[in-house]
Amino acid sequence: MASIDPARRAAAALLVGVLEERLTLAEQAGELAALPPQDRARAQRLALATLRNLPRADAMLKPHLRKKPPADLLAVLRLGTVEICALDAAPHGVVDALVTLTHSGGRRAEGFAGLINAVLRKVAADTARWQRLDPPALPGWLRGRLMSAYGKVAVMKMEAAHHAGAPVDLSVKADAAAWAEKLGAELLPTGSLRLAQAGQITDLPGYAAGDWWVQDAAAALPAKLLAAQPGETVLDLCAAPGGKTLQLAAMGADVTALDISAPRLDRLQENLARCQVTAKTAVADALEWQPEAPFDAILLDAPCSATGTIRRHPDLPFVKDAKGIKELVALQAQLIDRALGWLKPGGRLVYATCSLLPEEGEAQLAAALERHPDWRINAPEIAGIDPAWITDQGAVRLRPDTWPERGGMDGFFMAVLKRAT
Ligand SMILES: C[S@@+](CC[C@H](N)C(=O)[O-])C[C@H]1O[C@@H](n2cnc3c(N)ncnc32)[C@H](O)[C@@H]1O
Where is the SAM-dependent MTase RsmB/NOP-type domain (predicted)? Predict the structure, then answer.
């Protein structure tokens, strides 16, 4: 009998964590720490693929299951189905490995090894049906909200983009064209690089020297919108883990990066050190903190539902629900109100969220302008920006189905605010 595959075992455990314990994959990262890097990466890839295809896997399994198996065995069946149907793995190899894994699970699991074997063989004989299944739909709590905001056709496009997953984008400190050539990457119109093949990121040229960092093309735009000038004092409010701090510091600004989370700020410090740029940091609750002096510019990348990042975090719809959104919207409003009070005369604020929900974007901004009638939205000036991304308000709305021909981008909302003169 084959030996136990640690990556598949870890992937199945991650699935149980997401689907039963409602833990994100990021929250379970510690569970993978003991694995060698290759197994760790493979476990993550398998879990991500299974979550992206979960409704299709369940549709394939349904005719072959008289009752729902225990969660750990259902995870094995879902994983095997996705490997066979979506990842084109050789069925006999998958079945053997997962039967071995099941045997290792103690007496209770062992009794299910026959079921795993029989069901996965039936799935393997029926892969033509997989091709006919629709791309997975978002869960109802989110689908309904997005339908109201964007309509059915747009939601179906977003679901297809979530299913397709996300390429790896980089932000470079300088000389994007030269780095694109060196890394064999596409230079996107907005200045980010898109890797043709991800591979082991830390092995790529320029990683160790800190010449670039991983950052989705959409996530790179709020700092570009702020357009910090050398020597300007800039507050990066809600800064960690620091992708935008790195951009602002690389622009030559005098950056203060503030976040409530000390561990996340530790990661920001590591990123600053690797990229050899500097920023002051502050661990603080932005609802209580007070600056010593006003700033030229503030970037508020507010905590949000993160619904714009589902294509790279397919665990999110299974772990989160509509609960908590109201509190986030209230927190965002408080953060905007405080940040506007911390600007020098003539200063500017960029408000951004990686959310697809209008209450965290368009409606949040409209409400802020009602509370602060002397503030205006400034026209977005970003190289490479498509006029179709600019909303009637003058903000920027990005969705996972934006740039479909290039592989999409994360969902984001952003706007620059200045006091009317
Ligand atoms: C969207 S993330 C920021 C991502 C970051 N700007 C980047 O580009 O890497 C939101 C951040 O807000 C922080 N946060 C949440 N509530 C906060 C508060 N009351 N005060 C300060 N930071 C807060 C979280 O710890 C989290 O790191």
Answer: 139-420
